[in-house]
Amino acid sequence: MKCAVLVVLAGCFAATPVMHFGSGKSAKESQHDQAAKLTPPTLTTDHEWSGDVATVKVRVYADDQFRAQNVHWQETFEGELAYANEVLGAEYGIKLVPEYRQWPRNAPGETLDDALHELEQLDPGNGVMTVIGLTSSLSLVSATFEQLGIAQIGGHHMVMRGYADVFERQMFDRAFKELTADEREAMYFARRKHKTAAVLLHELGHTYGALHTDVSDSIMSPMYSDRSSAFDGKSRDAIRATLDQRLGRAAIFTAGAAPASHAPVAHATVVIVVDAKGTAMIGGKPLDNQALGELLKLSYDDDHDTEIDVHAAKHTPQARIIEILDVARGVGLVKASFQRD
């Protein structure tokens, strides 16, 4: 099993936004300005794909609650996927084609971690690149770390929550009373389109081997932001390498980049054992986060391509695994694998 990573929601107001008036502007003009600031940018690509675009199958499951909240759920997801495919096609040379299935699951109190585990048990992913689970949205627009999506790093499974339509619409109606219904709808649609596609791309990025990044406006930032517009360079390279391997295609190098050597290069591996209580150990020695970071920094200084291999007990909290990977990422180590013993 690969490591599951979650995405946190930010860049979205949790309560009615504050409106600032002045400079001779009317309430309507001020709300137009505020609406423009809250309208996200178009998702873009930094490097255009020059080869053929491969068709990649994904299997999409919608559980009972998601289907109840989204009567036309297949059509809704098609729109989200179409926007994500604009990025995936131009940046990575792939187009995701969905196969839809109902997921007989009704578990309102369970976490996304639970949902991911159930999805793995339901469908091992034979014949598709990724298995995507869709579950119910939350009652709040402002969500916490584990509430938007979860995915396996370098794996084949991910789960996303639906979009909280009613609650966000209510906020827009209260906050932008001076705008017309059509203007509020346009802003709402732009935010929904951006958020759903960005979260989908973020979780797919994890399944394609990308970790979180410190680049705040990157799609792979651990915080969702309505300012995100593209993948950062390191994430893009990790995703392309994984897709090249899975699709059996040769890596495409950017201009000026040196071709890879045909001879394999051996890099160091640091094995981190994590017990059920979340204690991290290297060579049998327990380490807190500070000591772990110091040791990993030495490994990074010796070899920037050192790989982290995390062996966790069956009941190790998922949040602890993510914390350890973030410690590694914090010192510059981005290559990681994960398994439960």
**What is the topology, as strand order, of the major beta sheet?**
3-2-4-6-5-1-7
Query: Which descriptor suits the 3D outline?
Result: globular
Query: Which whole number gives the mean pLDDT?
Result: 81
Instruction: Tell me the CATH topology of the largest domain.
Output: Collagenase (Catalytic Domain)
Taking pLDDT < 50 over at least 5 consecutive residues as the criterion, the unreliable ranges are: 8-22, 140-146, 253-264
Q: With helices defined by DSSP (H or I, 4 residues minimum), what is the helix count?
A: 9
Question: Can you tell me the CATH class of the largest domain?
Answer: Alpha Beta
Beta-strand percentage range: 15-25%
State the domain count. Answer: 2
Which key phrases capture this entry?
Nucleotidyltransferase, domain 5, 2 domains, 7-stranded mixed beta sheet, 12 strands, 20% strand
